[in-house]
TrEMBL record:
Any GO CC annotation of this UniProt entry: extracellular space
Keywords on record: Secreted, Signal
Chief subcellular location: secreted
Listed PROSITE patterns: C1Q
The organism of origin for this protein: Cynoglossus semilaevis (Tongue sole)
Compositionally biased region (Basic and acidic residues): 18-43
Protein name per UniProt: C1q and TNF related 6b
Low complexity compositional bias, start-end: 44-53
Length: 343
């Protein structure tokens, strides 16, 4: 009884194992069919895109996918598919060996591509340069046998030379140039000869005029103006000073210098004017003081012919006086020509 049960149990186990074996074979066939379809897809993609990077990476990707799928299989199917896996691995290794050679060939073709593009096609016409319509046309090229010799005309100018022409008119002078720097001072030349004597001058013409007179008497103011009259002559060669009127008359027009000196009176005012004709020019003034002092006044005047210059004492509105005595001369009046007029 136990043998029957045991024999029946063993047959059932074999049936189960056989069914599992057939299921694994079916799964391996399905796996192989899928692998073949993937290989076809890869080969078609590589042919349509030979330069893409997917061709060089497809063996490694397929190898990794195969390993992952094998690891997912049960142990009986794993051992049964080892042979097919090893054959695919060898095929992948062969492809990987061919891959570097193909990449090298592609790189060389890429390097040769610019040179191929630069080579001119024999069917194309030669390049023609642009010319302007006004440029001179180049002579057409001819062979060595047909080239003409160059002819140059030489004219002997000595034969055609004519007689010398007349001298032309002198041209207009150009503009003066810039002033140059001053040169060095030259040497002193020899003394020249004595010149001729000039024409005699006018004997009546006098080029000088001067005088100097004094007074020995005191003078007090009155109800009117008084001309100061002098009684002592120091210099009056040409008698241009009138002693009776106390006035200088101009006979030589020019610039004159005049000077008046007086002595004041104690406790009295001194008030005089130097007159040019009837016009007051300068004043000689001293205030009343206990002590008498000397006062002086000077001026230069431009005189014309017959002008008068004299000294005037102020009238009694201001009681004033000047002092002098018979012993000494305290009052003087002087004048002389500095420069005659040019006209």
């Amino acid at each position: 009884m136990m043998g029957k049960w045991g024999g029946g149990g063993g047959g059932t186990l074999n049936v189960i194992l056989g069914e599992r074996e057939r299921e694994r074979e079916r799964e391996s066939l399905v796996f192989k069919n899928r692998e073949r379809e993937r290989e076809r897809d890869r080969s078609s993609s590589s042919q349509s895109h030979p330069n893409s990077l997917s061709f060089s990476l497809s063996p490694s990707i397929s190898l990794s996918l195969s390993l992952s799928l094998l690891l997912l299989l049960p142990p009986p199917l794993l051992w049964s598919n080892c042979t097919s896996f090893l054959s695919r691995a060898k095929e992948m290794q062969r492809r990987l060996r061919v891959l570097p050679t193909m990449l090298l060939v592609c790189a060389r073709l890429l390097l040769l591509l610019p040179l191929v593009c630069c080579v001119a096609s024999p069917s194309r016409s030669p390049t023609r340069h642009c010319r302007r319509c006004c440029d001179q046309l180049e002579p057409s090229a001819v062979t060595g046998s047909q080239q003409m010799p160059e002819i140059r005309t030489v004219i002997n100018m000595t034969i055609l030379k004519g007689d010398k022409g007349e001298k032309g008119d002198r041209g207009t002078p150009g503009k003066p140039g810039l002033e140059g720097p001053h040169g060095y001072r030259g040497l002193i030349g020899p003394k020249g000869s004595k010149g001729q004597a000039g024409a005699p001058g006018d004997a009546c013409k006098i080029s000088s005029s001067f005088f100097s007179v004094g007074r020995r008497k005191s003078l007090h103011s009155l109800d009117y103006y008084q001309a100061l009259v002098f009684d002592t002559v120091f210099v009056n060669i040409h008698e241009h000073f009138n002693m009776f009127k106390g006035k200088f008359y101009c006979y030589v027009p020019g610039i004159y210098f005049f000077n008046v000196n007086i002595h004041t009176w104690n406790f009295k005012e001194t008030y005089l004017h130097l007159m040019h004709n009837d016009k007051e020019q300068v004043i000689l003034y001293a205030q009343p003081s206990e002590r008498s002092i000397m006062q002086s006044q000077s001026v230069m005047l431009d005189l014309a012919l017959n002008d008068e210059v004299w000294v005037r004492l102020y009238k009694r509105e201001r009681e004033n006086a000047i002092y002098s005595d018979d012993v000494d001369v305290y009052i003087t009046f002087n004048g002389y020509l500095v420069a005659p007029s040019l006209h």
